[in-house]
Each structure stands twice: as structure tokens, then as C-alpha cells.
Amino acid sequence: MAMKIRLARGGSKKRPFYRIVAADSRMPRDGRFIEKLGTYNPLLPKDSEERVKMDMEKIQAWLDKGAQPTERVARMLEAAGVREKPARNNPNKGTPGKKAQDRAEEKAAKAAEAAEATADAE
């Protein structure tokens, strides 16, 4: 049974509130879970201690049993200092898209033409 430590959404429309739960990965997001491990309230300010509450002993026990945290929960655990931050590598993230590259090439060509025209005029 593949276990996940993930967020289960609660709260009303446009007022999210999440429970951090240990659940079988085959269960729906807001469906059946095995144990509640904490809460996350994204509406509170980032420096508030009430924003993320986690029971570290329970989370560590589930991690020792082999439960895998989701990306968002893993980042919360990194911020709490429970888990080390893995190296993230996305070399294509900073490169512009095809259309932006085409626009840059056109702009460079126009600038070169303008430079040649001013050089010829002198």
C-alpha cells in the first residue's frame, strides 16, 4: 500500500483550509485518510505560527514507515527543518519561449539595420 502525506482540502468556497493527512495514494484528495497529522491555513500571514501546525512525532513515524510527502508537504517539512532540501534542477525554466526568442531576434536585426544606416550616413 503506497502511503502519502498530503493535504486534504476543507473550508468553504474561496476560503481554503487544509488538513495534513497520511492517506493511501489511491484514495481521493478529500476522501478517506488514516491519520490527521496537522493543519495548514493559507489565509493567515506567512509569519504566523498558526499558519502551519504539524505533529512532528507522527510525521516522523510515517516517514520512517515509508510514506512519501507530496511536493507541497515536502516544502513545509523543509521549512520546519525536518527534511533536507533536495537539489531542484530545471535548466529550461529561465529560457524564454519560442515566440519571445523570435521577437528578440527581430529586435536585434532591426537594431543592426539601424546601426548600419547611421554608420552609412556618417
Automatic annotation (TrEMBL):
Example GO biological process: translation
Compositionally biased region (Low complexity): 111-122
Alphabetically ordered keywords of this record: Ribonucleoprotein, Ribosomal protein
HAMAP family (alphabetical): Ribosomal_bS16 (MF_00385)
Record gene name: rpsP
Region (Disordered): 79-122
Family label: Belongs to the bacterial ribosomal protein bS16 family.
GO molecular function: structural constituent of ribosome
Taxonomic lineage from the root: Bacteria, Pseudomonadati, Pseudomonadota, Alphaproteobacteria, Rhodobacterales
Basic and acidic residues composition-biased segments: 99-110
KW Ribosomal protein (keyword) present: yes
Name under which the protein is recorded: Small ribosomal subunit protein bS16
GO cellular component: cytoplasm; small ribosomal subunit
NCBIfam families found in the cross-reference section: S16
PANTHER family in alphabetical order: 30S RIBOSOMAL PROTEIN S16, SMALL RIBOSOMAL SUBUNIT PROTEIN BS16M
